[in-house]
Each structure stands twice: as structure tokens, then as C-alpha cells.
């Protein structure tokens, strides 16, 4: 397996603390809309079957980015699962399912590129099934989003998606075309999630 910087530092605008991702404002759960518009995942388009390049030959920065994106998608999934448990609003479970699909896409690329999973702050390999176990670089973001989501869940979701969108847009500018194509599909999903949370706030 290829060794990739487990803490993923420096790739995504100083995400070590996550404090920059949290804003102020209002946004509390209201009416549950079980069929939220635009919350779908990649709808089958997050494919890796048509790659022109061998992911094992990608640069170390590109491989580290793949791990970081997997970790960020897991962070988002776990936050939304926690919000569904706390508030019972279907929007959170719907979007958590979408984030799970994004995780699966990035994990497939990790397997193709022979990349290991990241580790948490205690040095343990992050398990997909361990809700709340974060890659070390994501722990601060997770904690801050959970804190905000306790009282402002829809605003928290909007902020989380804005962070995700900014990260994806920045990454697409410099990665290879195969990886950029996958990230563009994830970006489309994040824009859908952002619209769904914005509708709840309006």
C-alpha cells in the first residue's frame, strides 16, 4: 500500500481546527420534507471505470487529496447522521445517504491507487463504520459542526456544504483530468445539498 500523509495537513486551507468554517445566524429545524429537491448523489455518474490514467501513477499530492476527500465526506456523513438522531429531520438522513455514496466513490479510487485509510488523533486507522471517528485533520471541523448543529442545524448544513464546495473547486483546478471529473460530480451533489439547506432557511 502507498504511504500517504496520514494527517493530510496543508491541502485544504488550514482545516486543522475547523474554526473558520462556523458562522453565525439562525436556522432551526422546521417542517420535515421527506422528499427534498436536489438531494440525490451522483446518480451513477461518480464512475471510475473510464479512467485514462492508472491511479497508482498519480502524484503523491493527488493521492493525499483522495484520502482527504474521503475523510471530508465521512465527516459530513457522520455529522448529518448525528443531526438526524438529534432532530429527526429527513433532510439529514437523505443527505447522509448521498455522502455515503461519495465516500464509496473515493474509497474505490483509494483501492485502485493502493492508498491506505487515514488515522485518527490517536493513530488508529479510521473505520468507515465507526460513526464519529474522524481523521485527525477533520476532528476540529466535526466538533464545531456538531456544536453549531445542536441549535442551528440548517445553517450548519449550509456552512458545511459551502466549505465542501470551496475545497472541491480548489482541488479541481490542479488535479489530473480523471480525478477532476470525479470531483466535479461530487461538486454537483454538494451544490444540490446547499440548495436544499438554503430552502430550509428561507
Write up what this structure looks like.
The chain has 202 residues and is mainly α. The chain contains five helices and no strands. It is globular. The chain has a single domain, classed as Ferritin, core subunit, four-helix bundle (Ferritin). 54% of the residues lie in helices and 0% in strands. The N and C termini lie far apart (47 Å).
Give a nutshell description of this structure:
The chain has five helices and no strands. With 202 residues, it is an all-alpha fold.
Write the layout of secondary structure elements.
Layout: H1 60-87, H2 90-113, H3 139-151, H4 153-172, H5 177-201
Helix pairs in contact: 1-2, 1-3, 1-4, 2-5, 3-4, 4-5
- CATH fold description: Ferritin
Instruction: Give me the CATH superfamily.
Output: Ferritin, core subunit, four-helix bundle
The largest β sheet comes out as: none
Strand content: under 5%
What structural class results from the helix and strand content? mainly alpha
Q: Return the string of H and E elements.
A: HHHHH
Ends apart, CA distance between termini: 47 Å
Unreliable spans? 1-45
Overall pLDDT confidence: 82
CATH architecture type: Up-down Bundle
Question: Helical proportion?
Answer: 40-55%
Count the DSSP helices.
5
Report the CATH C-level class: Mainly Alpha
Rough outline: globular
Radius of gyration: 16 Å
Whole-number total of structural domains? 1
Please tally the β strands and state the result.
Answer: 0
Amino acid at each position: 500500500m502507498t504511504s500517504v500523509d496520514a494527517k493530510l495537513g496543508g491541502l485544504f486551507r488550514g482545516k486543522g481546527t475547523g474554526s473558520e468554517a462556523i458562522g453565525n445566524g439562525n436556522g432551526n429545524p422546521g417542517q420535515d420534507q421527506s422528499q427534498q429537491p436536489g438531494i440525490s448523489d451522483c446518480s451513477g455518474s461518480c464512475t471510475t471505470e473510464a479512467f485514462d490514467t492508472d491511479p497508482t501513477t498519480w502524484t503523491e499530492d493527488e493521492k493525499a487529496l483522495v484520502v482527504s476527500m474521503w475523510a471530508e465526506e465521512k465527516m459530513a456523513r457522520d455529522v448529518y447522521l448525528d443531526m438526524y438522531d438529534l432532530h429527526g429531520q429527513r433532510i439529514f438522513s437523505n443527505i447522509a445517504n448521498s455522502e455515503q455514496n461519495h465516500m464509496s466513490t473515493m474509497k474505490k479510487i483509494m483501492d485502485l491507487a493502493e492508498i491506505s485509510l487515514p488515522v485518527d488523533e490517536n493513530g488508529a486507522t479510521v473505520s468507515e463504520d465507526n460513526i464519529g471517528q474522524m481523521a485527525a485533520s477533520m476532528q476540529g471541523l466535526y466538533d464545531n459542526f456538531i456544536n453549531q448543529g445542536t441549535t442551528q442545524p440548517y445553517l450548519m448544513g449550509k456552512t458545511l456544504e459551502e466549505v465542501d464546495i470551496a475545497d472541491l473547486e480548489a482541488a479541481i483546478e490542479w488535479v489530473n483530468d480523471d480525478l477532476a471529473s470525479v470531483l466535479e460530480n461530487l461538486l454537483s451533489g454538494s451544490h444540490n445539498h446547499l440548495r436544499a439547506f438554503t430552502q430550509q432557511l428561507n
